[in-house]
Specification:
Layout (H helix, E strand, L loop, with lengths): L2 H12 L2 H21 L3 E3 L3 E8 L2 E4 L6 E4 L2 E8 L1 H8 L15 H81 L1
Organism: Glycomyces paridis
Keywords: DNA condensation, DNA-binding
GO molecular function, one term: DNA binding
Length: about 190
C-alpha cells in the first residue's frame, strides 16, 4: 500500500478524502519533525519512531576484503509494539475500527457507499472501454490479416494465370504449326 491508497482507505472510513489526506500529511510531518529533534514518538500497541546513534566502527569492503573505517551516523528507526507484533504473527485478530462518532456514522456510511458506487461504476466503465479497445484492436488486426491473405491470394492467382498464358503460347504455336503442316500436305 502506498500513501495514496492509505489516504483512500481512511477516506472510505471518514467520508472526506481531502481531510484524510491532510491528516496523513500532518501526521507524517509531525512524526518526522519530532524524530529529527531526537524525541521518541510512541503509539501504544503500534510502535515507536525514534532517532538512533550508530557508533563509529570497522567494516569490511566485500569486494576487496579490506578493512574500512565507518563514521558514526544517526538513523531513523521504528520499533514495533507488542500489539502490532501479535497481529503480524497471527496471535491476535485485528478488530474493526469504530466510526469517529455515532451521530455522524450513518451520513459517513452513506457518503462512503456513494463514493464506492461511483468508483465501482468508474471501474466498470474503464473495463468496458478497455475491452472495447481490445476488441477493436483485435478486429483491426484480423482485418489486416484478412486483407493480407486476399492480396497474397490475388497475387498467386495472377501468377498462375501468367504461367498458364506463357505455357499456352508455345502449345498454341505447336498446334498452329501442326495445322499448317497438315494443310500443306493435303
Amino acid at each position: 500500500m502506498n500513501k495514496a491508497e492509505f489516504v483512500d482507505r481512511i477516506a472510505a472510513r471518514t467520508g472526506d478524502r481531502a481531510a484524510a489526506k491532510e491528516v496523513v500529511d500532518v501526521a507524517i510531518d509531525e512524526i518526522q519533525r519530532a524524530v529529527v529533534k531526537g524525541e521518541k514518538v510512541s503509539f501504544a500497541g503500534f510502535g515507536v519512531f525514534e532517532k538512533r546513534q550508530r557508533a563509529a566502527r570497522m567494516a569490511r569492503n566485500p569486494r576487496t576484503g579490506d578493512a574500512v573505517k565507518v563514521k558514526k551516523t544517526v538513523v531513523p528507526a521504528f520499533r514495533p509494539g507488542t500489539g502490532f507484533k501479535e497481529l503480524v504473527t497471527g496471535k491476535r485478530k485485528a478488530t474493526k475500527a469504530a466510526p469517529a462518532s455515532k451521530k455522524a456514522a450513518p451520513a459517513k456510511k452513506a457518503a462512503a457507499k456513494k463514493t464506492t458506487a461511483k468508483k465501482t461504476a468508474a471501474k466498470k466503465t474503464a473495463r468496458a472501454a478497455s475491452t472495447a479497445t481490445r476488441s477493436t484492436a483485435t478486429s483491426r488486426v484480423a482485418a489486416k490479416k484478412t486483407a493480407a491473405k486476399k492480396t497474397v491470394a490475388k497475387k498467386a492467382s495472377t501468377a498462375k494465370k501468367a504461367v498458364r498464358k506463357t505455357a499456352a503460347k508455345p502449345a498454341a504455336k505447336k498446334t498452329a504449326a501442326k495445322k499448317a503442316t497438315k494443310r500443306g500436305r493435303s
